[in-house]
Amino acid sequence: MSGTPPGAPTSTYRIQFTPDFTFADAEAVVDYLDALGAGALYASPVLEAVPGSTHGYDVVDPTRAREELGGEAGRVALSKALRQAGLGFVLDIVPNHMAVGDNDVNPWWSDVLRHGRGSRYAGYFDVDWEAGKLLLPFAGDEGSEEEHEHYRLAFWRRGNAELNYRRFFDITTLAGVRVEDPEVFEATHGEVLRWVAAGEVTGLRVDHPDGLADPGGYVRRLKERSGVWLVVEKILGADEALPASWPVEGTTGYDALREVCGLFVDPAGEAGFTDLARDLGVPVDFAEVEHTSRALVADTILRAEVRRIAALVRHPDRAEAERAVAEVMVNFPVYRSYLPEGLDAWRAAVAASTSPAARALDEQVRADPGGELATRVQQTSGMVVAKGTEDTAFYRYTRFAALNEVGGAPDRFGVPPEEFHRRAALREAGTPLAMTALSTHDTKRSEDVRARLAVLAEIPDEFAGHVRRWTAEHPIDEPSLNMLAWQSLVGAWPITADRMRAYLDKAAKEAKVRTTWTDHDEEFEAAVAAWPDQVLDGPVAAEVAEFVDRVVLPGWSNALGQKLVQLTAPGVPDVYQGTELWDLSLVDPDNRRPVDYEVRRRLLRRIEEGWLPDVDDSGAAKLLVVHRALRLRRERPELFRGYRPLPASGPAARHAVAFERTGLVAVATRLPVGLADAGGWGDTVLPLPPGEWTDVLTSRPVPAGAPRLADLLDRYPVALLVRGDR
């Protein structure tokens, strides 16, 4: 890390731009974000994208601001409003790929289709020109295939096996871009860097760096050219660190998400959930599920990528070369290595492979770690891991869904406080300006759904009894999906049948057990689609509602606890749009629903006037925590330095998690059901550092010495203490 970059925000607030939420709409809430305490608006991609796109990651022209969002004039007006409010502007950029098709939406790609290898943009895209004409797998059937001068319009099913250009995962409409080429870097980044130079963009978030040929070289160039706060969407394994040579402030926070959320999961619940899963026929060996899922992905939807890499291996048996390439990528202990850094991960993957061609692959890669073979294996291993683990295994291994999160470790049942404190101290020492997150546009479920599900780990037998009874009434004829469905229903309750139906349809297809996105089991899909109405219109719905009433209060306690910890622990916390109130969203596109900012404005105005809301359905208590913590970070950044665990003392000490920074103490309740069952805090105290303290949430003075937690946490299950009279 290279010191504190100019414009490093105290916090960020993520906005998802869509044609229905434009630059002008964002400009209209700048005053709200300022009042909330946000340090910067963190924007989803804003360059010209596919018409109608609701996410913006399908860029078609990186040289201009997106017209559907308000174009250049709208972007400039928003930038001006943010600067006037003293807020930063962090931009999400997409260097790995651009949207393509057999149309003229993307001008660079269209030129390639017209002129083939002779196009001035032919080298912009990662195309295997030696394989012949560009294969475009966009035809609806074999009868509509067409031969053109420079490309073949082919049946879409041929793409996974025959594609001759790199893509984003298995999405053939997103073609890989060669930003390792300086000319391509300038062409794709010039406009954004112009905004940076003008002071209109103060930070950058890099999407999917693992897809790049040379991520380290890329971020070094980007940092040199921009000089701003820079974070990368790098999904780290549970025990993995960012390459030390990368001049970035850190990741986008999935590592912190695992640690913070895991802190509120009771490890004692593991056996009960394992027993329930096994009884219902759900797999309980995560390593086996993960390996099988990755192998499926390598052998099917990423078959073209495996073949292209194997063609570079100097081995006489092409089939064995393909097997070796697939095995090594499937066996990666992390998403990818960054050779020559990360050699241990590479060695582990090779050692676990059985193909006799693995040795030839290993020798060739190590002899030239910057060569094409090494580069392509590393670019593709992240695709195999992401599609195999996140988008397949997480929908098959559904023992306890709260752990099945991007960057998560479903086989590690929670995070002990000692581990949390150790990792928080490491973040403060090494990457204090890394982003931290609890909800993102890519999370499998929102932070508040996870917080409620964490309660179930405290009452596994009670929940198991309900699930067995409910399943007997309304089974889904695929055990993993059935287990996931009941957890999701409880976690997101109350939820409409339409939202639940859309979620289960996606989950079933991602799992690839009974149906997939491309090979449909229509009868099974129809049964899954009918399930939400059958449950919600029948007597089981009342039982679900009654059970949710039992877990909702401790769920709110967990939600407030994990939010306060995230907002005050080391790192730069991000608040995903709308999650300053309770948010019970599931996976995208459910988490991109419109946010009602007027409701939030009204509640915030009352809080600013001194209102201390109850912990209730309104979610205003969460807004209070977010507001007070963010404002404190922005107004008194000197408090958010250093890190020291602060242990409680007494019979309920394990139910408190607390830490001190510099003149600041954060306190949260964990495992609230067990705390209540034990009779509450009793004589448990929290020994404080010397001085007078004030709880910023309630504005109450705190007794010096060792206050009783029963008194400190009588109003809220969290406290935010500042030394002196606040």
From TrEMBL:
Please give a single GO biological process term from the UniProt record: alpha-glucan catabolic process
Pfam families documented for this protein: Alpha-amylase
Under the heading SUPFAM superfamilies, the entry gives: (Trans)glycosidases (SSF51445)
Q: Which GO terms describe its molecular function?
A: (1,4)-alpha-D-glucan 1-alpha-D-glucosylmutase activity
- InterPro entries reported for this sequence: GH, GH13_cat_dom, Trehalose_TreY
Domain named Glycosyl hydrolase family 13 catalytic: residues: 16-605
- CDD domains per UniProt: AmyAc_MTSase
Write down the superkingdom of origin. Bacteria
The record's annotation in NCBIfam families points to:
trehalose_TreY
The protein depicted here goes by the name Malto-oligosyltrehalose synthase
- The organism encoding this protein is Saccharothrix syringae (Nocardiopsis syringae)
The opening ranks of the lineage are:
Bacteria, Bacillati, Actinomycetota, Actinomycetes, Pseudonocardiales
Query: What is the name of the gene encoding this protein?
Result: treY
